[in-house]
# Entry
Amino acid sequence: MEAIYIIIGIIVVLLLWVIITYNNFIIMIKGMEQSKSAIDVYLKQRFDLIPNLIECVKTYMNYEKSTFEKITALRNEYNNKNDFDTANKVNSEYNKLILLAEQYPDLKTDSQFALLQKNLVKIESQLQAARRIYNGDITMYNAKVKTIPSNIIANIFNFKEKDLFEIDADESKNININM
Amino acid sequence: MYQNFEGIYQNLIDQIGNLAQEKEEYRIKMKRVYVTVIAIVSIFLLIGGLYFHGIIVDYSQLKLVLLVTVILSVIALIIVVVKAVNVSAKFNSIFKKQVLPKMILNIDENLTYKPKQGLSEKQYKDSDIAIDFNTFKSEDYISGFFADNALLEMSEINAQFITVNQDGVVNVIDSFNGILVVATLKKTVNNKIKIVKNSIWKLDRKANIRIASLEFEKYFDVYADDKVQAMQIFTSDIIDQILYFAQELKIKVQISIKDNKFYMTFETGEMYEGGITKNTKDLLSRYYLVTSFIVDIVKKINKSIEEIVL
# Structure
């Protein structure tokens, strides 16, 4: 009789552990969604400056119209999809444009461009902070997915590792632009 | 920053020389204390031997001899111990009046050192990282104004919780013994940020921030009302520096930012004391590390906050 109680006790403890671990995974996933949404906010703020940027640069730079259309199209695609791959594509084109713009001394003295740069710096700082928070949540989640004993629950309920968010800083790459 | 200690130590060579003289003097005085103790024990053993071998037969004679010996022993001990203590006090005085002020000035020319002053109990309580106490002592006050009148203050504090039970037994618990830093920030931060010792039981799950560093998470929990702003202020290199203190120097650090004040506590134990029996260079190296780290962190935090548009 005593043995039955012990077995029931063990089963109850195991069940509680499963429930608690599962709930912790869900809480972590919700946390990650929240921090991802903060990144989305700052990315959108950054990309919302694209029309202003195009307005500033097209007066000073002989840029093919298709290049501007490309970046605008990518931005619209990001607004629809909200995924990091598209964000990185937009960011890559965006960085190329900024780098090129900074090579024009006349453009640098433009007050609108100066205001744009100030806004960019502010948003960049917030974006990097949001990225660190998101990656922190991902790192903790991935650790739980891989380590014993929480990996047992992860396998049962199909919780998979997630990728960190890295936003490209393209300043060091060679830029090939159709002029 | 940390490699500059050798240069600073070389600048202090004259003062270190004075300390070395006092140390030697102390060593001689302590030798006399040990010799006196050995002599006293030998005399008592001799008296005991004389009594048990029947050379001193009269018990009242023995008592008289013992009494005289005890009085003379106590007087001799007091004399040699007081002389040793005086040397130790002189050593500490040289340390606090000559060595420390110069070292602190070398760390940053804006800093001044006042050994008998300290931060207040209210400043410790206002930090939000104070541990329960009912007795508070503070000394070794270091302060200075940096650019734009940002004030940095720090001192050694000793906070204890003393209780007396029904039987009159006094129970003393050391709540905190180490350095408290209070820095006025150039701008007011509309955010409450805390970096405290890691715990399974989180103070506030909603305000808890995950740093993308499992190493950092092993030692610290971070809480903030505005998480993004907190991460803008605590950049990666500041986080690495804080982790260095926890990992390499094994010093518990806690940080709090409230309004326009930045608080830090370092559980270092006794600080800024001479330690006549200890290696002076090792002591100075430790005081230099902690002090220069504090100055560096405060400057970096102020710079971070200035760069964030508030």
